[in-house]
Amino acid sequence: MDKPYRTMPDIEVLPAHFPIPGAGFLAVNAFVIKAKEPVLIDTGMGKDSEEFMEALESVIDPRDLKWVWLTHDDADHTGSLQKVLEAAPNARLAAFSLAVLRMSTDWPVPMNRVYWLNPGDCIDVGDRKLTAVRPPLFDNPTTIAVYDDKSGAFFAADCFGAIIQSPVQSTDEVAESELAQGMVGWASLDNPWVHMIKTNEFSQSLERIRRLAPKKILSAHLPPAEGKTEQFLELLATVPPSTPAIAPNQTALEQILGSAGSVNR
Ligand SMILES: [Fe+2]
Ligand SMILES: [Fe+2]
């Protein structure tokens, strides 16, 4: 985990970064919205659980949380979910039904605390409305990103992620070419289906975000990005017809392990 920081007047980032061998880093962010009914969005990676709880407690007393919004049930988003629900007895778990059911095969999700949301559904958290949005790119069918109508922030889940060279607190600190390459590469690798759909169909889902016109994009896998929505949408529009990213194979792994001096055969 990295040190939490404030990215908007009432929004805190609980940041971590995950090294991608030979490529750079992927941010793994969770967020706290200090709404009238405070909301935690996602719960980081399990390997960071102890640090995650400390980071959370440094920005809010978990007993004050009223909502935990799970964007999807991938492990880099559910890492501290059980611990958070224990520490935040007044919080309800807002999530897509299938995410909750799938997690229930692994641990007893307290169903009486669950709030099921589909894309388009909203929750009122006292001083703002949070709307569940299916982002243009998603690597998990349970994905519900979040649009906050008070701050104008769009919590994009895995969409708009990018592998970058070093962890930073704003995409303004990332060179434009690095950001473009990192975002297109991540989009292709994390969403191979995007190469199977028609460009104009994909454009429609990008258009929905354009109409939403978020002030800030808060992706789980990118430093916060202000005033870059159009740039990002144009970048993603290039992905469907592009050459699909190729994931590293065994030869690459052996090179990585070899350079780390620990090849086992
Ligand atoms: Fe994911
Ligand atoms: Fe993710």
Please provide a written account of the structure.
The chain is of the alpha/beta class. It has one domain: Metallo-beta-lactamase, Chain A (4-Layer Sandwich). The chain is built from eight helices and 14 strands. The strands form two sheets. Strands 1, 2, 3, 4, 5, 6, 7 and 12 form an eight-stranded mixed beta sheet that branches. A six-stranded mixed beta sheet has the order 8-9-10-11-13-14, with no helix packed on it. It is globular and about 45 Å long. The chain starts with a strand and ends in a 6-residue tail after the last helix. The mean pLDDT is 96. One fe (ii) ion binds next to α2. One fe (ii) ion binds at residues 74, 76-77, 158, 220-221.
What topology does this entry show?
Elements: E1 5-8, E2 11-20, E3 24-33, E4 39-41, H1 49-59, E5 67-69, H2 75-78, H3 81-87, E6 92-95, H4 97-104, E7 114-116, E8 122-124, E9 129-133, E10 145-148, E11 153-155, E12 163-164, H5 176-190, H6 199-212, E13 216-218, E14 225-226, H7 229-237, H8 250-259
Parallel strand pairs: 4-5, 5-6, 6-7, 11-13
Antiparallel strand pairs: 1-2, 2-3, 3-4, 3-12, 8-9, 9-10, 10-11, 13-14
Helix pairs in contact: 6-7
One fe (ii) ion (FE2) is lined by residues 72, 74, 139-140, 158.
